[in-house]
Design a protein that fits this description.
Helix content of chain A is about 35%, strand content about 20%. Chain A contains 9 helices and 13 strands. The longest helix of chain A is centred in the last third of the chain and has 23 residues. The termini of chain A are far apart. Chain B has a 6-stranded mixed beta sheet, with helices on both faces. In chain B, strands 7-6-8-5-9 form a 5-stranded mixed beta sheet. Chain B is globular and about 65 Å long. The chains are: A alpha/beta (about 350), B alpha/beta (about 280). The interface between A and B is large, with 29 and 45 residues.
Chain lengths: ~350, ~280
């Protein structure tokens, strides 16, 4: 991970003068920039994590090479999330596959036509959906890859929609032929299509996602609406200005607030630039791939987000997520528990 | 039959309800003393209730669980007729610490000149009022000799919550301040629980000791009732498991008689900084 400032701490620790250097580095960067700290003292990691938690910076990457550790810190808090108030475990994400007909240059899970499918499979989806219903999951999101590449996507969505209201994330480009036919058989009141559209005009969308993809996404949106499905538009943007521009575009078309998602590019997967995110920045949302259970859909193939390779029983996966969330919040809880006058 | 004693406490956290529920149960069931607890949102409102006269529209309480500042305000505004009853053993011998970055530009009080000192809530004795006062005694005047970065969070709670002290430490750790003033209990907890990187911060100064909270009686409370209340407190034992749960939650091992020698610095500081000007309305 490329950083804006490289700080070689040598053998220094926080007890021997590292903090003044870290503060000096902090003064040279802007919010969102990355500082890399390299040290031969592995113990710096624990203290750096404590420093990050206290100062609301975020430790987003840790690597060990040739006996030296390199930690990357994102300066400043991550953009506020609207998800903060949602109960942990109320949302379930399923990565049904990782292959995709597009190769978006910011894809956080490196999906592309060349990516191995790594399919979750219909049988596992059915079991997950059945157990999710028992656990009180009240929203299921089906994503990939491009889920509509799967020949059994209709059955997958049917199983999910039977368990909870379901949203399928798609680039909208494949909604024709047998895929459109299978979509027609699905319950409109239980299924929403979330279609990616990154900009009001083709240029930026096509630059990220491939030539002609904007026009085909628009046709997909129209088809889904014509079939009577609720469509949510999702833009992935790289700046507040882009977000504002897209918001105006949606306003002009009278798109309801509930039918829009605008998020920043995350520095994960293929992305070369974006918001660096760590677990601590994300309210966890139970995310399942063929490889196991992850903290959040952003980074659902990265080792730092993996909770457990065992999906079943789903109740245990959810318990593992809650335990991890408790651990993540431990610092905040312990700090908040210091009282002077009980 | 003994009349009800109305006891005030400030609710700065949900756990306060549990603590005073436990105290009330003890008074009723073991001490046979009818105590009812009234929770206030601020010490200003609580002190008003302690000083309220029968014809005042404000609620009236007989005893207040006060911070050191609230105790001194009640004393000052009642012309010294409000009386101290008891305090926690842990209210004795507090200090304020000034902490700075290990290896940074501030290693002594003198280094604070032209530097930034982070302070907690302006109504916190330990994290704002006293450090400014003690530094004056060291010929360091706020605004003249050093700058301040103040975190006036949870005003009205007199620094009870620790929120502002947390902001003070954060400001020192990220370099917005060169040093910060916090209470000794907060500093001890940070270190013992390793909430800050080990060795990252150093104490550069420790104040003289002072005392903290105090049960305070209204001026016309029947002395016999006051005595029964103090006796009931003194009878609580850390060795008794049911008492211990309450005492631990309240942060003490035993209630002790008032020690008034540890309030003079705050009295002087509060007078100089305008905290004895009684709010109107």
């Amino acid at each position: 991970m490329k950083a804006h400032v490289e700080l070689d701490a040598g053998a220094k620790t926080f007890a021997s003068g590292l903090l003044p250097e870290l503060i000096a580095a902090l003064r040279r960067v802007r919010p969102g920039d990355l500082i890399a700290v390299t040290s031969s003292e592995a113990s710096v990691g624990v203290d750096l994590e404590a420093w990050c938690r206290f100062t609301h910076n975020s430790l987003v990457d840790t690597r060990v090479e040739a006996g030296r550790s390199r930690w990357v810190v994102r300066c400043g808090e991550a953009p506020a999330s609207a998800d903060a108030a949602r109960p942990v475990g109320s949302r379930l994400w399923l990565y049904t596959n990782f292959d995709c007909n597009l190769r978006c240059d910011y894809c956080c899970v490196r999906s592309s036509p060349k990516a191995p499918r790594r399919a979750l499979g219909l049988e596992r989806v059915r079991r997950i959906a059945a157990e999710a219903a028992e656990l009180g999951v009240d929203e299921i999101f089906v994503t990939g890859g491009e889920p509509f590449l799967l020949s059994d996507i209709g059955e997958i969505l049917l199983a999910c929609a039977a368990a909870a209201p379901t949203t399928v994330l798609t680039n909208g480009m494949l909604l024709a032929g047998w895929r459109l036919e299978s979509l027609r058989s699905l319950p409109r009141e239980r299924l929403t299509l979330q279609i990616s559209l990154d900009s009001p005009t083709p240029e930026r969308h096509d630059r990220h996602r491939g030539k002609g993809s904007w026009a085909r996404a628009l046709r997909g949106i129209e088809r889904a609406r014509a079939e009577g499905f609720r469509v949510r538009l999702a833009a992935t943007v790289s700046s507040d200005a882009e977000a504002d521009e897209f918001r105006r575009f949606l306003d002009e078309r009278g798109i309801d607030e509930a039918d829009r998602v605008i998020r920043r590019i995350a520095l994960r997967g293929f992305a070369a630039e974006g918001v660096a995110l760590a677990r601590a920045d994300l309210v966890p949302e139970l995310t399942i791939t063929a490889e196991g259970v992850y903290w959040h859909p952003v980074g659902a193939e990265d080792a730092d987000m993996l909770l457990t390779p065992d999906i079943f029983p789903l109740a245990e996966s959810l318990a593992a997520l809650r335990r991890a969330f408790e651990r993540e919040n431990e610092h905040r809880h312990r700090l908040a528990a210091i009282f002077n006058c009980a | 039959m003994t009349r009800t004693i109305w006891l005030g406490a400030v609710a700065y956290d949900p756990k306060v309800v549990t603590i005073w529920e436990g105290m009330r149960r003890y008074f009723h069931e073991e001490a046979q003393l009818p105590v009812e607890v009234v929770l206030f949102q601020s010490y200003e409102a609580q002190v008003s209730a302690l000083l309220a006269q029968p014809d005042d529209p404000a609620p009236r309480i007989d005893i207040a669980w006060n911070t050191n500042l609230a105790f001194l305000q009640a004393e000052a505004w009642s012309q010294q007729r409000c009386r101290p009853i008891a305090m926690r053993d842990t209210d004795l011998g507090w200090t304020t610490k000034i902490v700075a970055v290990n290896g940074g530009p501030v290693g002594t009080l003198t280094d604070l000149r032209d530097r930034t000192l982070a302070l907690g809530s302006r109504d916190s004795g330990h994290a704002a009022i006293l450090p400014v006062h003690f530094l004056e005694h060291e010929a360091l005047i706020e605004g003249r000799d050093y700058r301040t970065l103040r975190f006036n969070t949870d005003l009205g709670k007199h620094g009870d919550t620790g929120t502002s002290e947390s902001e003070v430490v954060r400001a020192v750790l990220d370099g917005r301040a060169d040093a910060g003033a916090i209470g000794s209990p907060f500093w001890q907890t940070l270190r013992s629980q390793r909430l800050v990187p080990e060795g990252a911060l150093v104490e550069i100064w420790t104040s003289e000791p002072y005392n903290h909270c105090m049960f305070t009686a209204r001026s016309d409370l029947d002395p016999a009732l006051e005595r029964r209340f103090a006796d009931a407190l003194a009878a609580m034992s850390y060795d008794n498991p049911s008492h211990r749960a309450v005492l631990e939650a309240e942060g003490l091992k035993r209630w002790v008689a008032p020690r008034l020698d540890g309030y003079e610095a705050l009295r002087e500081a509060s007078a100089r900084q305008g905290f004895f000007k009684r709010p109107t309305g």
